[in-house]
């Protein structure tokens, strides 16, 4: 089964549209599109992003094609590009499975039990609360925090499986252990930094720190991680050795690994092949929308710089 996994859209409709189009163009015969939380927050288009995800999950009985076409009709896209986007949406209709993240929970008045939002994030989420439609508030409210995917030995969670309500930052997966990963493969997000880690019963090692060298990724890496990290974009998952994997799929709408392009992951659960992909989009427009919404300038700059 071919799965595409995305996370941390953060109300960035321009990034989301670009990723949707890329997935439809490049990733043929997709069985599922998994959305791993934080649909809203930070960016200027929360309702548009929620409407898109609702369409991908429930189809046109929830969100009309006319609405999707309206969202797709960005001024910088040609009529042909808009038509292609609409076709892309129809190819992916009802293939979506979504869970919630901490910003989604905050937007419906359910903050994390263990952490408080930083002031910039809080400004953005308060603005988002006032803007969301009743349908989108209801949609976000009913999203679960983690989900096991049938008998396929993998699950999705925004942060950590053992305590998703706490929204621990799994930076370099340092807070995780073999014993509190409950599936052989776990897909998460939350840090906005793509990476992949192997856990064994004896020791945690790194299989890949994807797309950016470890010494530039986080200076707090453990020594074993600094020594073992490889810069790779694809690899095979080996389930024969009793290992467990934690895959951070990065961010669609606000990457923080020094690369402003949106990120998604392709995972074939039959062949066990996994690949990280990046998609360029109109960051200037996304940044301008944030400023026009009178959201903090810091958020507009992060979109441009990927930090």
Automatic annotation (TrEMBL):
GO terms for cellular component: cytoplasm. Residues 3-194 form the Calcineurin-like phosphoesterase domain. GO terms for molecular function: phosphatase activity. Pfam families: Metallophos. It comes from the Bacteria. This is Putative phosphoesterase. It comes from Candidatus Jettenia caeni. The lineage of its organism: Bacteria, Pseudomonadati, Planctomycetota, Candidatus Brocadiia, Candidatus Brocadiales.
């Amino acid at each position: 089964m071919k799965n595409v996994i995305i996370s941390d859209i953060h109300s960035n409709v321009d990034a989301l549209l670009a990723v949707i189009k890329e997935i439809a163009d490049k990733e043929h015969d997709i069985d599922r599109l998994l959305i791993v939380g934080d649909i809203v927050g930070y960016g200027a288009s929360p309702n548009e992003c929620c409407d898109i995800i609702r369409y991908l999950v429930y189809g046109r009985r929830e969100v009309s094609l006319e609405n999707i076409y309206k969202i797709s009709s960005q001024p910088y896209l040609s009529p042909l590009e808009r038509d292609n986007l609409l076709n892309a949406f129809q190819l992916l209709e009802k293939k979506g499975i979504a869970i919630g993240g901490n910003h989604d929970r905050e937007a419906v008045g359910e903050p994390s039990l263990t952490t408080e939002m930083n002031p910039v994030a809080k400004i953005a989420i308060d603005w988002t609360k006032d803007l969301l439609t009743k349908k989108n508030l209801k949609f976000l409210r009913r999203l679960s925090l983690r989900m096991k995917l049938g008998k396929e030995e993998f699950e999705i969670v925004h942060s950590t499986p053992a305590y998703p309500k706490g929204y621990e930052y799994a930076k370099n997966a340092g807070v995780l252990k073999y014993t509190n990963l409950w599936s052989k493969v776990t897909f998460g997000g939350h840090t906005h930094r793509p990476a992949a880690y192997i856990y064994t019963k004896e020791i945690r090692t790194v299989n890949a720190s994807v797309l950016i060298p470890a010494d530039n990724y986080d200076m707090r890496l453990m020594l074993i991680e600094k020594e073992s990290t490889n810069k790779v974009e694809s690899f095979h998952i080996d389930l024969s050795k009793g290992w467990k994997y934690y895959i951070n799929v990065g961010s669609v709408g606000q990457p923080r690994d020094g690369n402003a392009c949106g990120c998604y992951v392709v995972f074939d659960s039959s062949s066990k092949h996994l690949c990280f992909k990046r998609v360029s989009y109109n960051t200037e427009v996304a940044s301008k929308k944030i400023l026009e919404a009178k959201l903090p300038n810091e958020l507009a700059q992060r979109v441009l710089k990927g930090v």
